[in-house]
């Protein structure tokens, strides 16, 4: 029989089905107190693609723009350092311990391994320092998930565009 509960976060009703309860019992975990949407938001809350910070590369000391603030405990490398052979990612590897929670081990590995400051292909970007998740840009500012653009500002998910401002999901657009 279905059970309706109130989400402890958004206060909306959500339904837990009998098959869900069987799964929770099998996995030896309690039934959720958050609805599926709030659980999804909580899982993705650690991601950041749009907030950019000035900081120093922890490898070469150069000033960079990063998706990680200088207050983070992570080691952050600029693109050239992260992609170089001057460090070996295998040095950060750890053996899997079946006696510990898997995701706790993934978190530990994530925290100890140097992170790439900004997922931008810097060798293909010209005069576009404040961008993230981008490649092949010229004169762009505060754009994310963007490729092959010129003179674009304040945009996300734009491709092959020129002169666009304040856009979301634009392809082959020119003003």
Automatic annotation (TrEMBL):
Record's protein name: Zinc-binding domain-containing protein
Superkingdom per UniProt: Bacteria
């Amino acid at each position: 029989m279905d059970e309706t509960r109130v989400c402890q976060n958004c206060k909306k009703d959500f339904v837990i089905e009998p098959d869900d309860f069987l799964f929770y019992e099998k996995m030896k975990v309690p039934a959720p107190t958050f609805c599926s949407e709030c659980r999804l938001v909580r899982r993705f809350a650690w991601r950041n693609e749009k907030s950019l910070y000035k900081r120093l590369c922890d490898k070469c000391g150069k000033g960079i723009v990063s998706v990680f603030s200088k207050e983070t405990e992570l080691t952050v490398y600029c693109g050239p350092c992260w992609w170089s052979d001057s460090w070996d990612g295998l040095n950060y590897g750890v053996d899997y311990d079946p006696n510990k929670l898997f995701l706790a081990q993934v978190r530990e590995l994530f925290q100890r391994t140097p992170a790439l400051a900004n997922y931008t292909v810097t060798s293909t970007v010209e005069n576009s320092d404040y961008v993230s998740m981008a490649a092949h840009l010229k004169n762009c500012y505060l754009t994310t998930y963007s490729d092959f653009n010129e003179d674009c500002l304040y945009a996300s998910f734009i491709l092959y565009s020129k002169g666009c401002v304040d856009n979301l999901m634009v392809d082959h657009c020119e003003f």
